[in-house]
Design brief:
Elements lengths: L1 E3 L12 E2 L4 E3 L2 E2 L5 E2 L4 E4 L4 E3 L4 E2 L4 E4 L5 E3 L4 E2 L4 E3 L2 E2 L4 E2 L4 E2 L4 E2 L4 E2 L4 E2 L4 E2 L4 E2 L4 E3 L5 E3 L4 H8 L4 H6 L7 H12 L6 E2 L10
Protein name: Gamma carbonic anhydrase family protein
């Protein structure tokens, strides 16, 4: 499904493939020979999503572009099933495994691997050629440190300086969920004006 959002339409080159049950919403631009498989969602909320060449986004992955943090995916990248790429930059030849997550402001360096269910925290920088092991968390800048599951106290010492609530929700830490969700409901109300498009995703060919 191709959806116009905030007046922006997806752009899909002829060499790309988008499965019938996938969703491309808003300012999403696919590179040559990109493949978006069943159930995957690429949504440019108020910032673009752009992929390079030979990118495969597998089943049920979520890729979300944001105003201050667009999603920019390099060439020859795999985004695995159920992966979550939210406002992150993914450089060339990166492997994002099943269930892995990269949060707003994060950068995954070229040739890196986010293995199954691993996390790259907001505003964290993973150097090129890095590996985040299964279920581990990488956090910090200018170079992310690796934390095993259960290292909560050590992780928090790094994580609290990364300003997740400010980066993701635009609010200071300690803001109530009622206030956060009122803001989120207003933000996502922009989808009330969405328009499902016909098969031609590129307005230049209208």
């Amino acid at each position: 499904m191709l959806i116009e959002h905030r007046g922006q339409r997806p752009v899909v080159p002829a060499s790309a493939y988008v499965a019938p049950t996938a969703v491309l919403c808003g300012a999403v631009t696919l590179g040559e020979r990109a493949r978006v498989l069943h159930g995957a969602v690429l949504t440019a909320e108020d910032g673009e999503v752009r992929t390079g060449e030979d990118v495969v986004v597998m089943e049920n992955a979520l890729v979300r572009g944001r105003r201050r943090h667009p999603v920019l995916i390099g060439n020859a990248v795999l985004i695995g099933p159920h992966a979550h790429v939210n406002g992150a930059r993914i450089e060339d030849e990166v492997f994002v495994a099943t269930g892995a997550s990269a949060f707003p402001g994060a950068v995954v360096g070229a040739g890196s691997e986010l293995r199954i269910n691993s996390v790259l925290h907001a505003n964290s920088i993973l150097p090129p050629g890095s590996v985040v092991p299964i279920g581990w968390i990488a956090a910090g800048a200018p170079e992310a440190k690796l934390f095993a599951p259960g290292q909560h106290d050590e992780l928090w010492e790094v994580q609290r300086e990364l300003d997740f609530p400010g980066t993701v929700y635009g609010v200071p830490r300690g803001t109530s969920m009622r206030d956060i969700m009122a803001r989120q409901a207003d933000h996502f109300a922009a989808h009330l004006d969405d328009r499902v498009l016909d098969a031609d995703p590129d307005p230049s060919t209208d």
